[in-house]
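Handout, tutorial session.
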Amino acid sequence: MSQETFLPPCQLYLITPPAIPDLEAFGKDLEAALSAGPVACVQLRLKDVDDATILDAAAHLMPICHDHEVAFLINDRADLALAADADGVHLGQADGTVESARKMLGMDREIGVTCHGSLHLAYEAGEAGANYVAFGAFFDTDTKQTEHRADLELLTTWDEVTEIPCVAIGGIKPEHAKTLADAGAHFIAVCSGVWGHPKGPAAAVKEYVAALEG
């Protein structure tokens, strides 16, 4: 998921809702979203479920992503990313090291790391071999409790000093997307802004893409 792999330079990075009660219905929403415009990645982020539920969701949703040439990552768990044959894993600060995930997953899978609002954590992740880092939250979000805030200068500094892509996350609405991209974000991570859009996920993706290209 390198910066050079996807055009335009800043693209959408979709995160699933924390609960997916109906996989069939969500699969249709995912298909609609990915058909509506360029998306770089989908991260499966289910909370408070067992491993079997995560693997079942991956088996159902990953083929949809691959049909659209979209990378499919699993949140938190490198072992489940391996078991699901996913394209990679996204690690929080308490989800194990990049080194251990790389040893488990090999060199061909993506590893991303949450770095909150810290350049120091991002440098550590990059030196350890992460493929990308994620900064946020930039705005208020209902998806998860935000203990950390990031600012635009962080994106600009990171973009100037390294070639490792960064993801901006946290309450990002279409009207925020271009500002974050101009500041240096290579990917815009969105969850409720797409799945909770009143006109549906396809309309949401179109709005975000238009904002990024505007």
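The second record follows below. Compare its token runs with those of the first.
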Amino acid sequence: MACDNKSSNKQATKTPTPPAPPKQEIVEKKPTIPIVKKDTLLVKDVINEKNVRRFFTEYGKKNPETKLLLKTRLGNMHITLFKETPLHRASFIYLIKNGYYNKTCFHRLVKNFIIQGGWSDTEIVQKYRSQLNNYRIPPEFRKGIIHKKGALSATRRWVNNPEKKSNPFEFFIMQTSVDCSHLNFEHTVFGQVTSGFDVIDKIINQKLDGNSEWPEVDVDIEFEILD
């Protein structure tokens, strides 16, 4: 599904930006509350705050994949997920296999900083989140796994989130080589782009729609699990 329904939801959450770049915060989009038909189930599993750790620990054992191909109209990227962040890795694989990410696009482009994806203002994306109870993942900060160019990291809510739990539905990829150590131990890095760095630059240089950091022409996301 293309992310071409650009409604007012795009502007629902304004990402706070500190005055001195590059110290910017990455936050999740606040989902609206959709009306979900009981007979339209997109996922079969029940995941919530109480069982999220147990569920993805077991799911990760049965689904050990770490190699991904991210396809876009501007080119492809190869990504490796880290075994050192097992909950984030398992959740990412789960959402790919259950069709979530392929309904989304890159919705926030910040030059010399990040490309952020995993959102669309289409109803089906909101249904996925609602049926999965908008679950959050405990942080998995690891020494030596940092925010460098090509790092794949999770967004999170900054307000009323003292445990720094991740939003699994959105992610960002670092485009800059500038020191962004202020993000370390604030957002969980759980993967790394290994090839296709030029595609990151092509995406970030797309013309914006003029009202937000959303590109004028959508950059849809398609993930393929390789191994």
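Points raised in discussion: The chain has four helices and nine strands.
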